[in-house]
Every structure is written in structure tokens, then in C-alpha cells.
Amino acid sequence: MDYPELAARTRRFSHGAPRAVSVADDGSRVVFLRSAGPEDPADALWLLDVATGKERLVADPATLLGADADPAALSRGERALRERQRLSAAGIGSYALDAAGRVAAFPLAGRLFRADLVHGDVVEVATVGPVLDPRPDPSGERLAYVTDAAEGVRRGELRVIDPDGADTLLAGEDAGVTWGLAEHIAAEEFGRFRGYWWAPDGRTVLAARVDESRLERWHLHDPADPASPPTTVAYPRAGGPNAEVSLHLLDLDGGWVDVHWDRETYPYLTAVSWAEGGPLITVLRRSQQHGLVLAVDPRTGETQVHAELADPRWVEPIAGTPAHLPDGRVLVGGELAHDGYDARCLFADGTLLTPPSLYVRRVVGRLPAAGQGPADLLVEASDGEPSERHLFRVRTTIGGGVDARRLTTDSGWHTAAVGGDVLVVGVATLDHAGTRWTVWRGDEEVAVLGSHAATPPYSPLPLLERVTDRRLPSAVLYPNSYVTGRRLPVLLDVYGGPGHQEVVAARAAWLERQWWADAGFAVVVVDNRGTPGVAPSFEKAIHRRVADVILSDQVDALTALADKHPDLDLGRVAVRGWSFGGWLAALAVLRHPELFRCGIAGAPVTDWALYDTAYTERYLGMPEDGADVYAHHSLVDLAAEPVTGPERARPLLLVHGLVDDNVVAAHTLRLSAALLSAGRPHSVLPLTGATHMAAGGTAERLLRLELDFLRTHVL
């Protein structure tokens, strides 16, 4: 079986692999999702007993739904949430635990299930309609959920089910207003996928109210199914209105307290946490150049400023913050950009907790203190090598100085979950396939989470390097049959956008690229300025000049790599990318036809005035303040320029899902119209029924069509 078919059938070798790993607070249980085998798309809920090291199946979708049911059946709201999370798995997509990790709640085919993780019982709980984001209260006695739209049921009602089964409406309004859900911007651009939070005592819920009545309504329709009605979405396009988001403390007995902050000045609610110590929230200005970390008084709703976040370009909060430390201080993420330092760090009420040598990526949780004193922090960070991510123990003792000790030794990409004295470590490396999960109690490895994933057909070994005076992380991947001295055409495989790295020391990132290499290419990958992992100044150099900085970095890195690797034939270069990478691929062909012979642009943003507010305005500013900036970054404007020479007529293959609600298909259609008017050669491949992820094997099955295109124009 060839790679494209195998990758499609195994969801890129992720079916059967553990994911969504969490640990009970007392360290007794590890909970995770995993399907039954390498071609089974339906994830089930599993548990590992730490004391015995034994795994146990808790909830199987096929058993719960019946043999005739479709485990991939999703309500519209659940499908949209998984799209925001970039989750293509069927079955159980996510779950939530009570404080002790004894009860799990999860949606399945719009129905609500409650699992007793101690005794193993799983029961369906009756609801008034399809459920979204169900969560047990900290005691595990009550369940909260949000309704999805159905006949006779409004989307966005926040409801609570008591132990006796009584289902009570906590908050809900007419169409255009939802309760307990994250708005598009929060989920897509800030990584906040939820809209309500239980109080530690289980008597109050902190809930977001989202009013989308001012937003434009966009209508998405797949022409392949002309009998179906269009889907209407409220889309916050750049320069236009955003959803109005407010927070409210809802008492189970009917009490109601509004949370007060200057929502006009700070409209973006980017992070919320509520543990012992009270609620903490992070809010940003629309420009995202200034933010506040606020503590909320749960009795009155009044807020107190604990920290200010400021940057003349944009503020980049750190996942896992804000949070209360055991001694009552507030943990925040920020940047150290003075006295020669350039790092993402952690602070507690102004005190630096992590050394400037670390690039902090996420706060995982708390580890028991290594001796006397309060608990330490477990942090994911990089320490000088952006292609790797490691785990660090960070001391929080007042007056103890900055102290961060690296816990992981293997090269690779590490992640973790923690509870009590149990640490679960996942590591992906270039030396083995997939992510390996080990369970540790103290310094002792007590178990390994089993994986049923398929073994990939390749063991790629990319050559990772740093090139140019900017030390751009880069990589070259050769065919397995490569013989030195044979000149190879080059495929520049790009993403290049903020918030994501491609040059990582994990085999999964290189499997598809090895297929491309074995098809006869030297595959080149570059993480330009604007991507994370190096330093804040490296990321933010793109502010309001995204196109110029990113494209020049890609071209300069490609030239530098060719100097080091003389078999790279820069007379035969192709470029391909998806989403931001699709925009970059098309930009490369249109601006540098002397270098790029052809390009493949998948789901590209072709007109940034047609993309969402938070992302676009963060990097380009407001459209009314910089029409020239937007025009400079527009592929539609660039394509409309007249063709002045044969080298400028480089062909493009445009690919787009017709029901993409993130980068709508209008982007590709408008670019195609501009290319056609200018007489530029291109092809358009519409994907019927496909979203931005092009999930379900569609993306993998495109590979041969893309290869035929490149062979026609490059090989």
C-alpha cells in the first residue's frame, strides 16, 4: 500500500495512538482517548490504573451507540468545535473530569454520557437536546452542558443536571446570543475553546455571554448538493464588528452577578481560570498591544488588576496562565526584552521565575516540591534549540532565585500531564514513530500507554540546520535512494505563519515529506521570522510587513541551503502550502517567478480584508489605518498586475474546500478571477464537502494529483 492511501486510512498514523491524556489530582488514574486499531477512526475512553499499571476500556462508542450507529455522526456545533480544535477523530472527541478525576462527562453523537471512573459504570444522561461541552462540577455530582440547535431547542442554552436528573436552565436567550460557548475568535485565534467554568465549591458557574447580532452573516453552500440549504455563520471579518463578550457569575439558586471590566477598551477575553484563589481572566485591547490580568471577586464581580501586558507590536500570552500559585501570588506569562534579554518568561507578581535562556511555551501544572516548600511548576519550554521542546521543573519559592531544571533528556518534542505525584510524559522524536507515553511516579517509570497505531513506511532523517545571519531553522530531506552528485529539483514545503513551527525534531512532521522526496525532490522546509520557538523579537519582526519579511526569509534560506547542498537545483523549484502556507506559496510564485516555476496553494487567504479580526489585525493593523498594507499583502491585487514576461506566467494549482468556514472558498474564487483576467495560467480544484482541514482522507488523496502537477511543470 502506497503512502497516500495508508496515510488516509490511518489518519496519518494517529488512529490507535493515545491522545487527550490527563491525570487524576491524586495521581491514581491516567485517563486518555484511543481507538481500537490503526484503521479504526472512533476514539474510545480509556483508563490506566497507576497502582497496577493495567489499562481498562471505560467507554466504547460502538457499544454506547449500538452497532448500526455512526460514531462519526456529529451535531453542527460539535463539528464546528472540532474544526476549531483541528480534531478529525470520530467517536469521543473530548471529555471533562471532576476535580478528583473520578467522573468523566463526554458528548457522543449529540448525547450526554457520564462515566464512573472508579467503578466503571457508563450511563446516558437525558437532556433537552444535543449537547456541547458537558462538564461535571468539582464534586462530580452535577453535570453542566450547553445545548446545540435542534427542533424546538435553541443553541447556546447553559443548563445544569442535578443528581436526581432535574435539568435546569441556567441561562439562555433568543437567536444571536449564546451562553457557555467560545466565540469564533476565542477558539480559532486565542485557543480558548470553552465558555463556562465551575466554581471550586460547585455552587456557581462563571459563564460567557456572546452576542453575535452585530456580525455579518456569511452563507456557505456546497454546490455539489444543490438541494441542501446554505449554512449561515456569523463571521467577524477584519475591520468589522466583533461579537460582544461578557462574563457573569451564575448561582445555582438563581443569583446573578456581572463581572466588571472595561469591555469597550478590552473586548477580547483570551483566558479564564478558576481554581482555589478565585477567578482570573486575561483581556486584551482590539489592537492586542495591551492587556490586563484581572482577579475577579466572585461575590461582587468587581475586578482587580494583577498585571499589565504590553508590547508595541502585539501581546503573546502563554498557555496555562494566568493561575494562582500555592502562596497566593498570580502567575502570568510575559516577555523579557531589556538588558540584552529576548525571551518568553514566567512571572509571579512581578518576580521573574524562569531564566531568560528559556523560551516558555506552556505551563502544564504543579509538581510536588522537591523538598520543603510550595509545589513547583511543570513547564514546557525550549532552551536554545527551537526544533525541540522539553519539560522543566520551575521553583516558585519566594527569595529562592530563578531555578529551572530540565527533566527530559532525549532530543525531541515533549509534552506532559500531571496529577499528584504522577507525571505522564509524551515524546516524539526523529528516532521512532509516533508519540510514546510513559507514566512516572517520582523517579520510577511505572507504566507505558499502549499504542495500536500503524507503523509508517518511512524513517525519514531530515538534515536540520540554522542558516543565514538570522539563523533561520531549516531542513533538507533527500530521497532514500539519493546519490551524491545527482542534481535534484527542489520542493519548498511551506507554512511560515505565526504560531506554528514546521522544523521540529519529530518523525511525524517528515513522513509525507519523505514521500515527496522519494518522488524525486529535495524537500526544503524553513521556519522564517514570525514563527515561534526562537525569541519574541524573531516572532514579531513581521509586524505590518508580513509578506516582505517572511518571503525574503524563505528565499534567503533556500539560497543559503543550496550553497551548502550543491545538488539542490535552484533552476527547478516548486512551492506548496496550505492555509497561511497556501497564501505564502502563491505569493512566492507571483512575486518571484524567476525562482519558483510553479506552486500549489491550498485554502489560501488571498484577501486579508476577508479574514477574521483578531488574527489579521494583530499582524497587519486595522484596515482603515493601513489600506496600503492590506493591498500590499493581497494576492488578488498582485495577480491583477499585468504579465510582462514569459517567466511571470508561472502556473498555480488552487485547492479549496467548499464548506470551509475559516478561510472561505471566496478567497480562492476571487484569486482565480484575478488570475484569469490577467491571463495567468492556473487550475482550481474544488473539494466538495470539505472544510479547512480537508479531513477524512481528502488531503492525502490529493497528493498524487499534486505530484502530477509538479511533474508537468518542474521535473
UniProtKB/TrEMBL annotation:
It comes from the Bacteria. Transmembrane segments: none annotated. InterPro entries: AB_hydrolase_fold (IPR029058), Peptidase_S9_cat (IPR001375), Peptidase_S9B_N (IPR002469), Serine_Prot_S9B/DPPIV (IPR050278). Residues 172-416 form the Dipeptidylpeptidase IV N-terminal domain. Residues 512-713 form the Peptidase S9 prolyl oligopeptidase catalytic domain. Pfam families: DPPIV_N, Peptidase_S9. PANTHER family: DIPEPTIDYL PEPTIDASE 9, PROTEASE FAMILY S9B,C DIPEPTIDYL-PEPTIDASE IV-RELATED. This is Prolyl oligopeptidase family serine peptidase.
